[in-house]
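fyi for ur records
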Amino acid sequence: MKKSTFTTLLMLLLSVGVLFSQEEEKPKKTYPYKPMKLNLNEDGSAFVRFLTWQQLWATSDLREDADSQIKPSIRRSRFAFLSKFSPKFQLFMQWGLNSLTTDNLDGLGNGGDGPQMFLHDAHVEYNFGKGLQLGYGLHYWQGLSRASNQSTINKMALDATRPFVHWHDIAQTNQFARKLGLYAKGTIAKKFNYRLALSSPRSGGGLGELPTDSTGVANFGAWTLPDGGNYIFEGYLSYSFWDTEGNALPFYVGTYLGSKKILNVGAGFYNFSNSSIASNTNGSVEYFNTNHFAADVFLEYPFGEKGANGMLSAYLAFYNFDFGPNADNTSTVRAATGSVIFGELGYLLPGKKVMPYISFQSRDYDSAGDGSTINAGVAYFISGHNLKINAEYHNIKQNDIVNQRQFRVQLHFFM
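which gave:
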């Protein structure tokens, strides 16, 4: 009896051990990302794709006289819709909100000065071939630099660098960096990628009356005045030395996380005639054209198969801004007449999960003075750009005065 009981217990223990060993040997279940795509024909060449991304922040103000309380916010909550209903026609729409904080929440979510859901993009496009696609509507196809057309989904750093020198006229001529107008883009000889846009400025962003300060300092916003300009012409051209990039949508990728080997050089421009105005000492007014130029280089160099042994990412851009003589143009938010150098450097560690990085801005403005921005942080990719966490130190100085000093954390979700 005792022997039978012992044998039974031994067999039970062995059975449990086998079950546990089998459980451990089972392959780990994975959840690979699949786009939310609805095919409209059998081969999937006509389709509708849905996208959404959410970016949740926790920010602490590190300035000496500031409240160090950690403040939650929703930096972005976006939804997008892409439809290619024939080989020739494409429709893209995006809507969402930005920067929802405890300070601007509305009691019922339908009023006040708090952020509201609004239209970001809505444009249709006709494809003449790889060398030319024409589109029209509310669009993000613009000039100046790669960073001026950056995506917020797949950045290496936590957010776009501030002040928003890449989006130098944000909320002035446009609706959150989007303009109403016509664009053309395409790829030539597989290596050259171009985009051109002709757009109308936002009426509400201009000056309400002629300046009377008699200082000779240019004020950006003259397009709403009697002799102001009517159209913005801008463009960007890049050349790919190694792997090429797609241009179905306007958003340039921040980092490919080792999946591509990239070396691109580019240059861009922005022209807006009679867009600035100055009041001279003799009482007369003078209009000025806005002309900007930029050049940049983007590098992604993976080590090993698709970055298995690490990946170096680097971006460098030079901007020359001309809003007219000594124009400030709210330099703590955007750009001003003068020059800016922007750089970004990061290294994806082997395993493709952790990426420390640093970025900087160096500003040299004619009248607004000098300034700098430093962002230093680390990105942890839980599931690539679909689920990641950034932790970052952020510091902005203008004329040796600290405008911002923050530590911030972002949880990013995209599908």
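The chain has one domain: 41-414. thats all i got for now
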